[in-house]
Amino acid sequence: EAGQGAKPRKKAPPSRPRTVAPTPAPVADPALTPREALDRARAAATQPERIDLLEKFLKTYAGDALELEARQLLMREYALKGEQMLREANPQAAMQAFKNVFRVTPAIISDKVFGQYIFSLPMAMNAFGYRVESADLMRSLEPRFMDNPNRLIEIGFFYVQIEAPLEAIRILDRAVQLAPQDHRAHNSLGT
User: Fold this and answer.
1) What are the contacts of 123-128 at 24+ separation with CB within 8 A?
2) Within 10 Å of residue 21's Cβ, how many Cβ atoms?
3) Which of 4, 61, 86, 188 is the most exposed place for a label (fewest CB within 10 A)?
4) pLDDT digit string (tens) for 57-107?
5) What's the gap between Cα 76 and its chain centre?
6) Whole-structure pTM value
7) pLDDT of 19-67, one tens digit each?
8) 129 vs 55, 159, 191, CA distance in Å?
9) Distance in angstroms (rounded) separating the CA atoms of residues 137 and 170
10) Cα gap 6→62, rounded to integer Å
């Protein structure tokens, strides 16, 4: 019989989870000039590395003449990451990446930055079929523009394009309050 006369088996000691040392994150090297640090970030092999180095650049070299260039590079990386997440059918990760674009925008948002990085991101979400998420993203961006009638009109047009009439009316009404002479908001509202 199998169990008779056999020595009892010792219990194996509980196994400890193997710990793997994490790959060290790239660190902004204070010995580098701002140009060298920015070039290093730009040349990083992977997107996560580029993002990490650009984030560190903004912290290390805040106020430097190259800060705007670094912000634009970082906005581009986050926008590309968001678009990749949309292609992978992950709208929540895309929304987070797009919110990061907005987080790192310069204090003064030029028409180019607004058109390329702000307005186009909710449009991309909508184009991928995420209408509700695109409206949520645009709503999260609105507060920064509530005193800018030109931006509000563009945001209102976005809501018209995605067929969100209540949102469009709300935003375009605000634009009319700020700039009653601007015919674009009146025309969209039919007033």
Assistant:
1) 123/158, 123/161, 124/82, 124/83, 124/86, 125/86, 125/91, 125/94, 125/95, 125/98, 126/161, 126/162, 128/86, 128/87, 128/91
2) 5
3) 4
4) 999 999 999 999 999 999 999 999 999 999 999 999 999 999 999 999 999
5) 9
6) 0.79
7) 555 554 445 566 889 999 999 999 999 999 999 999 999 999 999 999 9
8) 31, 15, 31
9) 16
10) 72
**What percent of the chain has pLDDT above 90?**
76
Residue 188 and residue 157 in contact, taking contact as beta carbons nearer than 8 Å: yes
Spatial neighbors of 43 by CB under 8 A, at least 6 apart, are none
What pLDDT is attached to residue 127?
96
- The torsion defined by the Cα of 5, 9, 10 and 11, in degrees rounded to 10, comes to -150
Token pair belonging to 48: 């996560």
